[in-house]
Amino acid sequence: MANIDWSTMPLKGGVLIPILVFGTGTAWFKDDPNGPFNPELVQVLKSALAKGFIHLDAADSYGTEREVGVTIKESGIPRDKLFVTTKVLEGWRNVPRALKESLERLQLDYVDLYLLHNPYVIPTTEDIQSAWRGLEAVKASGLARAIGVSNFQCYHLEPVPETCTEPPALNQLEYHPYLQRSDNYVAWMQEKGIQVSSFKTLAPVTVAPGGPLDAVLLSIAAKHARTPAAVLLSWAIGNNVIPISKTSKDGRMDEYISAVTVKLLPQEQEESRS
Fold first, then answer.
1. What's the pLDDT at 67?
2. Alpha carbons 71 and 65: distance in angstroms, whole number
3. How far apart are CA 11 and CA 18, in angstroms?
4. pLDDT for 22-48, tens place per residue?
5. What is the C-alpha to C-alpha distance for residues 169 and 189, in angstroms, rounded to an integer?
6. Which residues pair with 196 in a beta bridge?
7. Is the dihedral of CA 55, 59, 62, 65 positive or negative?
8. Does residue 274 have a pLDDT over 70?
9. Could you give the CA distance from residue 265 to residue 272 in angstroms, rounded to a whole number?
10. From the UniProt record, which GO molecular function terms apply (predicted)?
11. At CA 164, angle to CA 161 and CA 169, rounded to 5?
């Protein structure tokens, strides 16, 4: 495991979350927690840990928790040196049972962050509030150090504090220069102490090349001797957003990790907004 001085951001309750995440969705998505085991993913995750990543992101709906668990067990890295996030989707009606099953697949006694994955599978606001009480219960029992949500829009998030005792510590959602959220939503969450984590942060270079940011990103990347992808990750971090990166290539892992050592100038941060 490479010795990298990871910066962190504080979550509610004092838990510190590393500012860059290695994700296990998309390419390895199985849509079945107990589907065929993927040894290729284990090798990729071992490479990520060897490169220095310490924060792994999973979900019961990705079907990748077993691979994450095997990776951690075989890595030999002490549990307290890693940060593990997972999420609950269909199990929202009985969150304690869902987390127990996730922990069995992960071969862990606890997760550092547990998220309610998607409000769109939960029928009503009252059901969201009920599911959230389940997350409060697993935090109180010590099975999750911090709890939060994913894919929540403002109208999903606003009713949660009405009945909760432990407000969400984080919201994980799509965020990049081409999707910065309307009505200052990100700033609104941050003002309330809800950290923001982003997926698809690299969309301008992965799924939307040829856009107005291409030349800007290349120019900034050249000034910092980095790549456009590293600039985008650094841009998110500069906005106090925790980006999730995913790749199976060792070179890309190095590229993404290099983002944590880049600090964009205020002008560059603004230029990267598109």
1. 96
2. 10
3. 10
4. 999 876 677 677 778 899 999 999 999
5. 10
6. 171, 241
7. positive
8. no
9. 11
10. oxidoreductase activity, acting on NAD(P)H as acceptor; oxidoreductase activity, acting on the CH-OH group of donors, NAD or NADP as acceptor
11. 70
| Average of per-residue pLDDT across 241-264 | 94
What is the CA angle 198-84-235, rounded to 5? 25
Residues contacting residue 196 through CB under 8 Å, at least 6 positions apart: 170, 171, 172, 173, 175, 186, 189, 190, 240, 241, 242
Mean pLDDT to the nearest integer, 218-235 = 95
Q: pLDDT tens across 55-82, in order?
A: 999 999 999 999 999 999 999 999 999 9
Q: What is the CA radius of gyration of the chain?
A: 18
Enter the pTM of the model: 0.95
Q: Which residues pair with 173 in a beta bridge?
A: 198
Provide the residue count of the chain.
274
Domain boundaries, the chain: 8-202+236-248
Residue 1: band (very low, low, confident or very high) from pLDDT cuts 50, 70, 90:
low
Annotated binding site: 117
Annotated binding site for substrate: 117
Helix ranges, the chain (H): 39-51, 65-75, 95-106, 125-140, 154-157, 160-163, 185-191, 203-206, 214-224, 228-238, 250-257, 266-271
pLDDT score of 10? 96
- Enumerate the active-site residues: 62
Nearest to 186 by CA among 148, 236, 147, 117: 236
DSSP string spanning 125-181? HHHHHHHHHHHHHHHHTTSEEEEEEES--HHHHTTHHHH-SS--SEEEEE-BTTB--
